[in-house]
Every structure is written in C-alpha cells, then in structure tokens.
C-alpha cells in the first residue's frame, strides 16, 4: 500500500526535528566533559557560548517566520538542515575553543529555523483534519533525537568528533529528503486556501482578520473568518496585516505568558538535570547520559499530543502535563530522591515537555491560522526567553540558597503556567455540542 504524501511529510519533519534539536542542539551537552578535556574550555567561554546560542536561536526563529512567508517552507527547511550539518561538521573539526564556540552557535541556530518552516509546510501540505496530529508527531522528533544521542554519547566515549561527523552526515542527507517532500509554497499562497470559513481541525476561531492574504490568486482585505476551526484553542481577535507583525490579541498574550513560564520551569532539568543527579546521587556523566536517554525515549510519547487535545481539549491537556512537569522536577532534584525515582522523573519530564511544546505549537498555529510560521515563532520565542531567564535564576537560587529551594520554586512555576488558558469560555461551551465533538474527532 502506497504511503500518503502527507505521511512522508510527517516522517521527514520528525527526522529533521530529531537532527536539529536532538543532535545539533542538545547532544553537545552530553559530550561536553570529553570536549572540555581535549580543548580546555574556560567557564567564561562556556557562559558566552550559552548566551550567544540563545541570541542566535532568537534571531533564527524570527528570521525563519519572515523567510517562510516569503520564500516558502521548503527553502527554509533545507537551510535548517544544511546549517545543522555545517555546524556539527564544524564541531567535529574544531581545532580550538573559539572555533568550537562558533560551530556550536551555528548548529544550534538550526532549531530556530526549522520549527516555523515545518508548521507552514504542514498547513500547506497536510489535509486539515490531520494537521494537528501531524504537527504533534513532528514535534516529538526532539525526543527521538535526544534518545538516540544519549546511547551514542555512552558508546562513542572519547570519540566525540566521529559522533558529530556522523550527526552532520544525517542532517546533510535530510536536506535532500526535504527538497523532494516539503511543499514549496506556504498556506496563504497555496491554491484552494480560503480566508473565509477556513477549517483546521476542531474548535472555533471568531473574528480572525486577515489583510492582504492571497487565496487562489484573489486578495482579501479585512475579511473576518468567523467559524474557522482549530483544535481546542480559540483565536478571538487575533489580527494579521499582510506579512507584518501581528497584533497581540488576548489568545497570543496568554500563549506568551504560558510559554515563558514553562520555558523557565524546564531549565531545572534541561540546564541543571545533570548537576542535580550528580549532587543527589553522585552520578557521573554516564549517569547523566542515562537520564538524558530516559527523557528522550519517553518524549516520543508526546507525539500523541494532537489526539489528546482533540479528545480532552487543549487546556485540560496543558494543565495535566504541566502537573507532570512539576512532579518530574521534584523527582529528579529534591533531596532524598533515589535512582529509580530520578529516572522516572526524567521519563515524566520527557513526555511532559514534548507534549506541552506540542500544545504551544498548535496554540500558535490556531492563533494565526493564515500565518502558522509566525504563530509558532511567537510561541517558541517566548519559550526560549523563558529558558534563558530561568537558567540564570535557577543558578542564582542554588548559589544563594539551596538546590531544594530552587527545585521547589521551579516546580511551582510549572503549575503557574497552567493559569493561562487557550480556550475562551464561549469556545469551551461550544465544544460540548455534538457538531463540535464530531469536528474535533476528524
């Protein structure tokens, strides 16, 4: 039986996310002790690399949304794959610490480029009824990449250059797959796209106004798309003007707040998980690799986020997995934890983080249905800013107080993010009607 073309898109996107996030961004931390032993990285340089990596991510995610709306998702996704490959090849060949720093920043910038482009590709190339599930599946590629990089780090040991050369080859090969499979055009430029009554799987979007969005060669100015549907998240009053900066409606402001708080809370594990298990359990870098593998393997379960949202609603899924994230921070970092509890916490964090980022991806797409790349850019930029702020604050709390204080506070931050709601009261009520239930199950 032939595979539907939209499934090829989902599989390719999943693999590209795994390469960009799992290999190009997160694998470096696993190999850092071995790299440090060879290149003698100073703590100052390591700090500069972290700050510069955040800056390049922010620039890349904004640039990706801008380029995707003008050049199409295929061009930007190919660029992300090639940049990831070039950056990881640079890491493999790095003769000195400054060279390594530049290569790490280049490789990490691929993550900012890839997510908005893939969201736009799904909007243009996947039937509306499968878009949310496909987006969630692609997003779970992060878990697969992290899960694979953990065993590679354990097996390769001192051969970190060979490992990154292999990662670079994978990313380079994916550039060719992207060139053949991803659509050239964005949703707004695809024939058959409509500005009125557009459907994107599930709950209502009332009063979304698009200005200057071309649909099958016809330009619509100020057309309100009342009744356009997305799964779970209501986009009430979200306004776009051409390809410019969208107005921050209530749904976008709530998305930014939730993503910022979640990003901050997640740094307890992403930035300090290895340090916490070393402190609590006296684990070496090998133990940290096991924690990373647990996070990545469980994160693949987050591919089901689209189905869970369709069945239970975006806000319920959001709150449940934020609770799981809070519990995972406590299990990994609280005083008195054990090895089984820490690994359980890692697995819980993996599925929670991937599911929640899937929620924000779908929330951003539904907030700006005619500009999915921009919606994803807003969500992931807020997440990254939260991670940067969170890492600084967590480290400060550990220095000034204790690790327990930092862990408890950051677990509470995860709960706080659940206050922000994607659905309006009207939309939550409307989903109870049979017609809405039928739509959400498509």
From TrEMBL:
InterPro entries: MFS, MFS_dom, MFS_Efflux_Transporters, MFS_trans_sf. Keywords: Cell membrane, Membrane, Transmembrane, Transmembrane helix. One of its GO terms (cellular component) is plasma membrane. It holds the Pfam family MFS_1. GO terms for molecular function: transmembrane transporter activity. PANTHER family: PURINE EFFLUX PUMP PBUE. Its main location: membrane. It comes from Achromobacter spanius. The chain crosses the membrane at residues 7-28, 48-68, 75-93, 99-124, 136-156, 162-182, 255-277, 289-310, 317-334, 340-363, 375-397, 403-422. Residues 8-429 form the Major facilitator superfamily (MFS) profile domain. PROSITE patterns: MFS, PROKAR_LIPOPROTEIN. It is found in: Cell membrane. It comes from the Bacteria. This is MFS transporter. It is a multi-pass membrane protein.
